[in-house]
Fold each of these.
Amino acid sequence: MTDRAAQTLTRLFDVRGRRALVTGAASGLGFAFAEVLADCGARVVLADIDAELLARSAARLTQRGLQARAQVLDVADEEQVRAALDTMLAREGGVDVVFANAGIAATPGFAIPGGQTVDAIDRDGLERVLSVNLHGVINTISSAAAVMKRQRSGRIVVTSSTAGLRTEPFVCYGYIASKAAILNVVRQAALELAPYGVRVNAICPGPFKGTRIGGGATLDPDEETERRWAQTVPLGRMAEPEELKGLALLLASDASSFITGAAYVIDGGVLLGAAP
């Protein structure tokens, strides 16, 4: 690589010293977001409700000499989210990047045997999913915006899903409802916050490993779950969380300086329809 190429990459994608918060960061996509930021020199707070897994995940980064710390956080609790941002403000003097990533699915969708059907929705489960996936995202955007408007700068990245853009029979109704709703929240917030220099964008992943969304009992999908999802992807496979890192770095860096209100699909071609 030439010196000029290295300088260009640094100018576009440099996040060294950026102060970042990632919710749902103990595993899966959230950990991938946190890891790429830390690897590239950002100071990252990993937030998650699972204290034990969170501690192990944060330690994976700090043991490599990266700047990371853990924050136990329930994004459905607005006061907790506000407190987390206030703590960052007090410790770091500001917040540059927030990934509103935390999300859950209470049960598989109707295409999976025993999954949720529209005439038998578990209302408690529905409210639990909405409290995290919708209210939790709004809590996170709201708390981040309160800091970033005063700074007149910042980047907020929300994890939606291809299930927010189309029907998805493998996931529950609360999941598709919340993931669709937050896309309009992203657009609205992007419009409001643009005059303050705050960019708000969404990532819409397709089938990724490392999550329990869509019927997997563990973070690593069983053979049947992986086969089922792979059949929906023209590229013929589920993705690894590693494959989100480039897009995450783009949206966290100055390379996306003129991008706001966008929803980036990263799905192996799922939205194109079935492969011929």
Note: The chain has a mean pLDDT of 94.
Amino acid sequence: MSKSAETIPEMPYGLHELRADRRPLLVGAHRIRCHVKDCSEIVELPRGTQWKRMRTNCCQRHHIFVHKNTYRFDDTEMGWQRNFLATVRDTDRLKKIQGTKVEQRWGHENSEDALTWNVFRTFEKAGKLSLLAALLTGERVQMVEPIELIPWSNHNGSPWEPLEQARQHFKEGKRIPTEPDVVLLSRSGMVFVEAKFGSPNKRKEPDIYRYQVGGFYKQYFTADLASVSYHQLVRHFLFAAHIADQLGIRQFMLVNLVRRSSQQEPGNTSRHFGQGFLKKPNQFRQATWEDIYDAFLRSNDLPPELDLLRRYFENKTWNLKPAFDRAVMAKKTSGIVLPEH
């Protein structure tokens, strides 16, 4: 970690730092007060395509760009690092990932990428990826150490070759190609994680028929892909299946990681994706961010890295509101002990 990174607060602004009412304090039609409590700075609201370019939209005191219902840090290196926990601001590694990542919204308060890195990198540094994999898969995939964490298809600073080969197999011509948020890989199994924070699962894509090339999908799906409502999940599942086949891995799973509140929304029914369309439904599972907190972080007696992650979960916001189920966050257990393996 660089010296400059050490001076940054250990986590982004959240429930403790933002105004309790969470309402935008508009000052006229196009001006707004900073969201941080007790801050009197007033900035211009961005309009149209100007939202990334208006320096007059930035609170100079807190170095955030202020939007009606959210905020973001600058896109520069020392800006987006501010959205990561102090324990996982791995500048060199993140820069390499940044060079191959398709989309980069690391500085946004509602970024699923920042949340994903903070959680999975913390478990990697703590040597607890096997425990996390067991939770996410419901112990259906046996992950034998060592387990590799491959974030956003970046493997040791370069594009992950098996994913590149899958893109060629499916003749993927998308402007934004398939890019799993996380791959957990061991010699015994593989887990693809499609992480969601606020975006929906239920979506259709006009070019989904392209992924029926060669009929590979028939090994796994009970219907034509166009009939499935979750085309993003379809793509990720097919990529996971193809890569597992190429690597000779028998056990694989696609995990859809969501917030508990979004899982319960009537319009978000991705939990039925496996039962409705997969020949082997146990190769898909939906888990929640709250599951991770509930299983591993409900304690006041944790190692420093996991304790910071606990406080991050409890303080985290999404569009200025509490990000996670407050009933889960309110629980406390002093006796949780994480096993070494």
Note: Residues 86-330 form one domain.
Amino acid sequence: MQPSQPRENAPETRPSASPDGVSRRSVLRTSTAMAIGAAAASALNFGFPSGVYAAGDGTIKVGLVGCGGRGSGAAVNAMNGDPNAKIVALGDAFRDKAEASLKNLKAANAKQVDVGPGQIFDGLDAYKHVIEASDVVLLATPPHFRPMHLKAAIEAGKHVFCEKPVGVDAPGVRSVMETADLAKKKNLTLVSGLCYRYDQAKQELVKKIHDGELGELQFLQTNYLTGGLWSNPRQPAWSDMEWQLRNWLYFYWLSGDHIVEQHIHSLDKMLWVMKDVPPAKVIATGGRIQRVQPQYGNVYDHFTSMFEWESGVRCMSTCRQFVGCDTDVSDWVYGTKGTADIMQHRINAPGGGKMLWKRRKPAPAMYDYEHVELFKSVRDGKALNNGDYMCKSTMMAIMARMSAYTGKSVKWQDAWDSQESYTPKSYDFGPFPVAPVAVPGANSVT
């Protein structure tokens, strides 16, 4: 479907504000952190089911794979989520990233960081060592590696926090679905980084939609219009592979393009509203207007998609990453009895009429609360498994990218069955040409 790049067919981004610092979602608010920690301490049973933990004092050992802004943020959220969770191992392709993450984590909460010099791992096999050292593994590398890392963690019997998206191509997503099924069989918790599912205000609103308070659903609309993101200028010593890994957002083999890496949050909310029934088909368009320079690799900077369900409900989806333009992150659900504004947690009468309901009760920070739920499930021995919807939401984004890249409408089953893999023949740190930007009409769905 996309322009050719060395790859083989074997199956194998809450975007960061900074490539090295803790992301915006991990900024500590002392009152929130204390409230979450107190709630966790009072709600959790600190007695351990036999054989679940390596430590015998109530400590859950947490390892981080992928030490950029999102990974460091997830580690802070994990510490906020359970006062007896302790970061014990860090792994990243690059040593400097892991060491920067350790510095940030100690500054955030040194009492829950116990990473010795021998527990910092670098290289593309770093994940293996982190998994071995941990009870719970946080996966936050570029999405291309998610299927591989998740499979290794679950096969090793570890509980997992798995950042979105779960892959960049259909073979990868199918692999993750198989791994999620294995996690169920092994009673292992698998929590997704699709954080809006853990927002109590949105949970309440979506329940009202599912209970029929909007009447019959007619149309959905979602926007994720944001600014530009970070990039790392290429250094003379960097190989092609290192340059791409350090700028993974801009290469579709690593990120899946921003419709998959970032806009998945919006699409996941739409899938949630539709009770996790995937759309039957999509037609999409996209391209590059601002980000045309070589440092931006081969991804698009805007997409527009129209999804359609078997029921006839349609969803108009738009996303872009433009500098100097207005931003808009919003989701709307239109029904015969009312309109829901998901981000503002309210329901209005049809046609923009009076407000019928609004959530006013404050909710715990969703970024921390997903980890509260993760650790509670581990301690209670009642595994959570978000595998189904995290795979479907990822595939929903992938099918839209497939449509935009080819200029063709794409059916759900065709996307799911696609054999196109973005896995390279090797991960050698040497020459690795950038694949051409996709040109609609020049490629076919495979």
Note: The first helix runs from residue 30 to 43.
